[in-house]
Structure formats: structure tokens, C-alpha cells
Task: inverse folding
């Protein structure tokens, strides 16, 4: 991981090396944290953060689901994201806001006086699933681990503890030589990748699992759906049987880190012709066009730094 000079922590910008946490922090023991991931892009008009307000809203929604009271207004968090880019002299960067329970209680249910700490970091970070994968596609597998359901955890929350499930899914895939793993629900229908939403293209139509398939309500997912409709494609949110993935014309993954990444094989079965498909490529062009000026930002998704 690359580092930067400063991190915003509990209301002030401090040197990277000073942003420390006590080993008795509740979040370290029990995963009691919520977070976001945002990207800043170097656009023709200067650095701009993609969908800052949507990510901030989801951060507060996640905290609400776990009954955390964030001790800052949303505008302060958004300004901290902007300052993390400015003061670290970054242009293309990944931004990580994190809200977590600090030291003060060892009980699983934290005491009311356990502090809620907040930090915002920004670092340089390239393509999450590899630059080559963006153009040529990646090889994935269906994981033996099921996605956690809303019967056990509030799946719509982007919470730290939830990502132990993601580690199992992604780690299993990498140990077997794949780039990523795809999870299924308890019903056997398709859910998502370890940290990405999933789309299928079949006969010119785009399909994607609904929120009831134990998926995170992805902001890049929502953006790609909006762009797809703008381009005239039909999108349906529907439960997908696992076997549909193998006979799909195209499959791609979306996420802040993954952006828009094509899938070229699943469980060693070639998807389509085994390379990036035309609809995936069109959506990539529209998505990345937001940052190079080729796609008009008619939704005001970009916040200038």
C-alpha cells in the first residue's frame, strides 16, 4: 500500500504516522466499523471526486443501521474528503472514510460512552483487479462460501465485520488461481463478487441481481445502470441462477475499486468469446468518459476538489 502525508482524524489533519488507534479499540476486537470507498479522478477540469454525496449518505445509513452516532455533519465529512486530496497533493486517488468504535469497552455490546472515531485517508491506488483485467477481462470462480444474508446482518450496511465473509470468498478464489470469487445466496442464486456487484448480458439485455440477493447497494452499480439506460439498453433486476453465468454472452463486475471490469471466464468456462464484450466495452467508455470529458456529467456526479 502506498502512503500519503496526512490523514484527517477526529476533526483535524494529522501526519500519516500519527494516525494511531489503541489496541483495545472495540472495532479491532469485534469489527464494529462502517466505511466508504471513493475515487478521485484527474479530469480535464482538475481533480474531482466521483459521487461524493452518495457515498456520504451511505456512510451515514450504514452507521444508522448499527446505531453509531457519527459526531460530525455530512458536510464536514465531505470537506474532509476534499482536504485529504488537496493536502496530500493527489489527483487520481482512492479515499477511505472510516467510522469505528474506539477503546472503552470490551463487552460485545459497547457501553454508551465508547467513543465513535472518524478518519478519512486518501492514497494512490490503481485498478483493483488489475489494469490488464480492465481491457482483457478476468478469470473468476463461484465460491463455496455463501453471501451473508439480511437474516443475520444488515447487508445494506458497508460495515467492517461484513468483510470477513468477503475475505473468505476472495481468498478462496486467489488460492485456486482466480482473480475473484462470485458468491451465491442461501437459495443458490447469484449474489455478487467479494467486493463488487455483478452484471450479466444475455441477448442484448442487461441483468443484475436485486438488493434481496444479499448484495451491497453499489454506487458504481447505480451509476452504470443509469449510463446503460442512457445508451438505450434494457436493464432488469432479477434473481439469477448460477448456471446462467456460464451461458451468458457477457459478464462484468462493478465497484469503486473495480470500476467496470469484464469477466472472461467462470470456473474455467469461457464467457462469450472469452474477451471483453461489446456492451461491456460501451459501458466502460461511458463510465470512464465521465473523467476524461467524453461523457457529459449531466447528473452532477463530480465534485471539483
Result:
Amino acid at each position: 500500500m502506498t502512503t500519503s502525508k496526512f490523514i484527517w482524524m477526529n476533526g483535524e489533519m494529522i501526519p500519516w504516522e500519527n494516525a494511531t488507534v489503541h489496541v483495545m479499540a472495540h472495532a479491532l476486537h469485534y469489527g464494529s466499523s462502517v466505511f466508504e470507498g471513493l475515487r478521485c479522478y484527474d479530469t480535464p477540469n482538475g481533480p474531482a471526486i466521483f459521487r461524493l454525496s452518495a457515498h456520504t449518505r451511505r456512510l451515514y445509513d450504514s452507521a444508522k443501521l448499527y446505531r453509531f452516532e457519527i459526531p460530525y455533519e455530512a458536510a464536514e465529512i465531505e470537506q474532509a474528503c476534499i482536504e485529504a486530496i488537496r493536502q496530500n497533493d493527489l489527483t487520481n486517488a482512492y479515499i477511505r472514510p472510516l467510522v469505528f468504535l474506539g477503546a472503552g469497552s470490551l463487552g460485545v455490546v459497547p457501553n454508551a460512552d465508547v467513543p465513535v472515531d472518524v478518519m478519512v485517508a486518501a492514497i494512490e491506488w490503481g485498478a483493483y483487479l488489475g489494469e490488464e483485467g480492465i481491457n482483457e477481462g478476468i478469470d473468476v470462480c463461484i465460491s463455496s462460501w455463501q453471501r451473508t444474508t439480511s437474516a443475520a446482518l444488515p447487508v445494506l450496511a458497508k460495515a467492517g465485520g461484513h468483510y470477513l465473509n468477503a475475505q473468505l470468498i476472495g481468498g478462496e478464489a486467489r488460492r485456486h488461481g482466480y482473480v475473484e470469487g462470485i458468491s451465491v445466496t442461501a437459495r443458490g442464486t447469484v449474489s455478487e463478487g467479494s467486493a463488487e456487484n455483478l452484471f450479466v448480458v444475455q441477448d442484448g439485455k442487461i441483468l443484475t441481481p436485486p438488493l434481496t440477493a444479499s448484495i451491497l447497494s453499489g454506487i458504481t452499480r447505480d451509476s452504470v445502470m443509469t449510463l446503460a439506460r442512457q445508451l438505450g439498453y434494457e436493464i432488469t433486476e432479477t434473481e439469477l441462477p448460477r448456471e446462467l453465468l456460464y451461458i451468458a454472452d457477457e459478464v462484468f463486475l462493478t465497484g469503486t475499486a473495480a470500476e467496470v471490469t469484464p469477466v472472461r471466464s467462470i470456473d474455467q468456462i469461457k464467457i462469450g468469446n472469452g474477451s471483453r464484450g461489446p456492451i461491456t466495452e460501451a459501458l466502460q467508455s461511458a463510465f470512464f468518459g465521465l473523467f476524461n470529458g467524453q461523457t457529459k456529467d449531466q447528473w452532477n456526479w463530480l465534485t471539483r476538489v
